[in-house]
Amino acid sequence: MSAFQKTRRTKVRRIPQNAVYDRASIDAILDEGLICHVGFVADGLPYVIPMGYARAGDKVYIHGSTASRLLTSLAGGVDVCLAVTLVDGLVLARSAFNHSMNYRSVVIFGKAVAVEEEAEKIEALRLFSEHMMPGRWRELRDPKPIELKATLVMSLAIAEASAKVRTGPPIDDEEDLQAPVWAGVVPLVLRRGDLRADSTGIEPPDYVTLDQRFS
Amino acid sequence: MSAFQKTRRTKVRRIPQNAVYDRASIDAILDEGLICHVGFVADGLPYVIPMGYARAGDKVYIHGSTASRLLTSLAGGVDVCLAVTLVDGLVLARSAFNHSMNYRSVVIFGKAVAVEEEAEKIEALRLFSEHMMPGRWRELRDPKPIELKATLVMSLAIAEASAKVRTGPPIDDEEDLQAPVWAGVVPLVLRRGDLRADSTGIEPPDYVTLDQRFS
pTM of the prediction? Predict the structure, then answer.
């Protein structure tokens, strides 16, 4: 359980008691999220793009088409800030000022670099697939050379990272506690809706129907 | 229903057939999302911070403590890229390459400026509250002067903006269509969990229990 040294960028200044720097917490948030938001700078201006990703040990892989402006720009090794945010609930306090959300979020700062080596690239594609739907990869055909070529995979070290976590009830001002207003938390959870099959005569696999993540 | 002119920044290059530029689509996504990711540049490096927000006509308001690094930086009128992303489902195709997600996303580029005028600031706080939990504001006491002072509200014009939307089934290569693998969409929806009351003897209000957004 390594702890991260706070850097100038990762030191959490806003509500620092919500800050978490240990790797286990950071990894758990990264592993649960489905998308990340990747920020980068081009011509001095900020860009933010939602992307798929997967974690492998001390790295996060992100991917897109080689045509993507983000990844074209990143291929030279551009600095990025990658954020993953999970919203867990609405926190209804007794004053507007103390309203909040329960959430778990991670930010990682670093240089994303293109993965060129074929074996690592295929492994990253496997990780993207398994991150999105664990159990699926082994049912799929191997990627074709043209598909590998059309997919740009970048890796980002989890070196400069921090997490923020808010849990629990509202925190109200003492003088508001008697206000005649319901207060509490409205938990929010991501659930699976009814499957929409595109194939006929094939049962949905257990890794979909028994997937505990969204049930 | 105005259409937006594509600019160098908002022109969607990656899978352009998923691009949406009309204001009604953009507004609907902004109104449904709970958090945004705000990207900005400081000392030449990218930062991305998850934040609460609310839309009011042609503006998006974002907020935080005046101590926030982001908003301190923004107070001078820094360029931002604001992204809102809604994940609607996992798209399981017959090849890893054609896996995707169904999603709706908006990005807005522009300069965020601090809201200084008190009436606009209070209105923005009302909008934050109503965006997060419609119906709640009228039950709450008025903000105190010290709370207004401690809250920095920024506004960002919805002028340079675009949306991307993916819906529907997987799109497979012709030669994969006979693969013996289930294919389809796993829809994902945000649902309300069991309320966690922090007050006693007060029934949760209708705007919580009848909230159609997460039921």
Answer: 0.92
Would you say the C-alpha torsion A134, A211, B99, A115 has a positive or negative sign?
negative
Backbone angles phi, psi at B109, to 5 degrees: -110, 145
Does the distance separating the beta carbons of B69 and A14 come in below 8 Å? yes
Nearest residue on chain A to B44, alpha-carbon basis: A44
Q: Which ipTM was obtained for this model?
A: 0.92
Flag if A50 and B105 touch (Cβ within 8 Å): yes
CB contact under 8 A, A202 and B191: no
Among B13, B79, B85, whose Cβ lies nearest the Cβ of A35?
Answer: B85
Residues A101, B128: Cα–Cα separation, whole Å: 12
Domains, in order of start, for chain B: 16-171+183-214 (2.30.110.10)
Measured between CA atoms, the residue of chain A closest to residue B46 is A40
Q: Two tokens at B50?
A: 């998850």
To the nearest whole Å, the CA of A37 is away from the closest chain B CA by 7
pLDDT single digits (tens) B64-117:
765 565 666 666 688 999 999 999 999 999 999 999 999 999 999 999 998 989
DSSP string covering chain A, please? -PBPPP-TTT---SSGGGEE-BHHHHHHHHHH-SEEEEEEEETTEEEEEEEEEEEETTEEEEEEETT-HHHHHHTTT-EEEEEEEEEEEEEE-SSSTT-EEEEEEEEEEEE-EE---HHHHHHHHHHHHHHHSTT-GGGSPPPPHHHHHHEEEEEEESSEEEEEEE-SS----GGGTT-SS--EEEEEEEEE---EESSSS-PPPHHHHT-GGG-
Question: Each residue of B17-69: pLDDT tens digit?
Answer: 677 778 999 999 999 999 999 999 988 999 999 999 999 999 999 987 655 65
Return the residue of B nearest to A208 by Cα: B186
